[in-house]
Amino acid sequence: MLLSLMIFIPLLGMITVLLLPRESEELVKRVALLFTLIPLALAVALFVSYDRSIAGTQYVVNVPWIEAFNIQYHIGIDGLSVTLLLLTALLGPICVIASWRNIEKGIKAYMALFLLLETGMLGFFAALDLFLFYVFFELTLLPMYFLIGVWGGPRREYAAIKFFLYTLFGSVLMLVAMIAVYLNSGASGARTFDIPTLITLAATEGHALNDLNFQIWVFLGFFIGFAVKVPIFPFHTWLPDAHVEAPTAISVILAGILLKMGTYGLVRVNMAMFPQGMDFFCNGTGTWGNSLAILGFINIVYGSFCALAQTDFKKLVAYSSIGHMGFVILGLAARNTEGVTGALLQMFNHGVISGMLFLLVGVLYDRAHHREINGFGGLGAKMPIYTGITTLAFMASLGLPGLSGFVGEALSLLGAYDKFKMLTILSTIGIVVGAAYFLWTLQRVFLGTLNPKYEALPEINGREILTLAPLGILTIVLGIWPNFAIDMFRESVTNLISVLEAI
Amino acid sequence: MQPLSNIESLLYFSPELLLVIFAVAVILVDLGVKNRESATVAYLSLIGVGCVFVAVLLTHGQLGDKDSISLFLGMIRLDAFSIFFKILLLLATAATILFSLRSEELDARLKGEYYALLLAITLGMFLMASSTNLLMIFISLETVSLTSYILAGFLTHNPRSSEAAFKYITYGAVASGTMLFGLSLLFGMTGTGDLGQISTALTELLASGEIYSLTVLIAIIFVLAGVGYKIASVPFHMWSPDVYEGAPIPITAFLSVASKSAGFALFIRFFYSGFGSSEVMQSVDWTLMLAIVSALTMTVGNLAALPQQNVKRLLAYSSIAHGGYLLMGGVLLTSEGIGAILFYLVVYLFMNLGAFYVVVLIANEEGSEMVEGYRGLASRAPLVAGAMAIFLFSLTGIPPFAGFFGKWLLFAAVLEQGYYWLAFVGLLNSVVSLYYYARIVKAMYLESADEETTPASFSTGTFALLSVFVIPTILIGFINIFYTFSNISVSVIPMQ
Predict the structure, then answer these.
(1) In this structure, what is the dihedral angle of CA atoms A124, A128, A134, A140, given to the nearest 10 degrees?
(2) What's the pLDDT at B496?
(3) Is ipTM > 0.90 here?
(4) I want to staple A448 with a disulfide (CB 3.0 to 4.6 A). Which of A377, A436, B311, B350 is the partner?
């Protein structure tokens, strides 16, 4: 019940917002904030009451939905999803506050779509029925298309449709794989979409889902669907466009949650349901045995070098996201406790850190109305608090020990080193390049002489600090005490690893 | 079961009889109406549709627990399948009458004929959905065709409309001629016009080697020409963009939904009872042919829709593509596949009619059917724009809208038969279709009108009618009963 409330309260918020008069903009914003704060409050309750000692799903609701096809409204959370669900609930109100002043037109429609998006994201992380999972996955598409397309920057139309087409292309392949899994799950009438049941069936010797060849094909179908979302090279080209054009809060959601939907899908479906297919692509032998690790490596190195070449602040952060998601892929490819723990941690941490980075870019853009890195200089003296927070975010992102980014990346690399020595060593190039572009940006924007144009640039204000503070605190806390998060998924990871090793 | 005699059959024929009565009544009443602007005949035909609806429900009661009743010495058949289509067709007719009431392009002087023809074409479609004899099939098909020619050319002041009617006739004549030849081949081989007997005879003749399977294949191809023309499948689709563009918008909507549905009813009954026996399918491989036709139809429809600037024409091509998706369910003729077709037709009825209704509204408001006319609609008429966006996304097949659930059923049916390539073609087509549907959404939401236009005002009735299409488009997928409904309608089509 708690979970259902959390998912559908934003939807209720959307309806409420739509019923408000268009003129009362302040009211619309407050109502939207309220309807994102309720899921946050529920998330806090969930965080407190969540049982960290069991591996299975909790807060389960399972009722029939479309009986003709055995489709159920089956939701619940376990260690794999709980951190991302909490992150989504946290970023919700932050994004509403971040949109308080800089959305100039149609605030009502904007907030309504944002609330719909939040329902889609929360539902996606909680869904335990493959059909429901797919519906929520697609539910995030429409609001995102409009949020980028209507409220975005100059090339918003192009970015929005590119995002939409890429994701839809991926998800139709996923749909084929999903139907194939459903049709092979049993005889007519006994078929199921239930994820836990499917996992059991796929592990049953002699079952159609247990067949290696079948697993490889459906693995690929789901993989491409999720790879577009992560995004994994070569499906990544929509991301820089979408990020650059999207308004600040939407970039935060895009980097913080939507990318995680891809990696979460990889864990929830590809790893847990098709361990043999996963093994085929990650066992380190044969033609395909290194492919997932290689993709992770390409993401890390390619993303980092692309980031190094950018002069647009937002594009730089976008490419750095591609690089950092590579660590998640690498950690997952390792399929051991360190690797998967690192990947899950990195997913959460990257959500927090990239959220901060995009908020910070937004703060600067709102003042200077451009994002050209070379156009600034010496802002450190003008905006000391802003500079401080930015430095914190940069350091966390480049992997400074003591801040959260380091732990996830280190664990991922540690796990991967066990399986893919050469690739892991080469991947560390990404960390070096990462340090290079962040420090170089720091130098170009905040150090040196102040550009006289920006003499009157106002310091970061209270509202903006309010959005950044929770994320900043999390970065420090998780850097010092990563168990704070790891405790939540330790059991589930152990369980997942045992499934992977059982084949 | 023994077919009923002509007189006995009349008892079960009340919906069709009522349609005839009301068609005549519309013409007679029209003679007496002085004020040409009055909408009397429209309301009269609406009442007619209502009465027929009740009559259809009554025949369902008469059917009782019997699977089917064969009427008029085996000419037509009353079963759940035909009742399903009759209800669907009545919904489309009612919607078309309501659209016509609001459309400003129709000639007020010809109202009587217009509504009478609309009822007549519905009668033809009723017969298409229930005929089980070659002769009856051809007659019902011709009734529908001839009436559609007139309706397509109804805008007498508009040369495009006349062109549409002319093209329609030319293609239609060729298609029905070809089909007639196919029917005569079938009759020549089997010596009977009854679909059930044809199936038995073909099975025996093929087993004994008395006829070549090639002859049967040729007969099937020729029959497909007639049916393919009605459902606008490649390569018999050429007429449809021109006809859809030239015809009055309500008629375009009607043709794209009702005509297609009736075509599919005929297609399913013909192929399912005529060629559906496993012996015939073993010796004559017509399923691969259907799969290719289906793949070509959706690809051609979608690719041709991409560059269109006229929304009516764009929807015409999209409707060709949807014919292709629907045909997927017809490949192999499994009951899952046919159930999926029926479900999709229900969904398609609401989303496509809804989209056309918005086209009517914008044509009245802007006098234009071009995509530019939709610019900035989101700020001028947010509710209409929102409804249009829902229809278009549902047509694309994006959840949570009904179009997605329809497509998922179709794809599941195709994949179940192992036609992976066909499912891939279908899904890639869905991605392509997003591009042109999204162009209209883009114009409505992402672009602003060139000059400051005043907010468009629509009446409450408009919104009420719009919600009749929007609500099912959102909800059908979530409601169990529709799946059961379409499955029951399939389960009783007798093979013989």
Answers:
(1) -10
(2) 38
(3) no
(4) A377
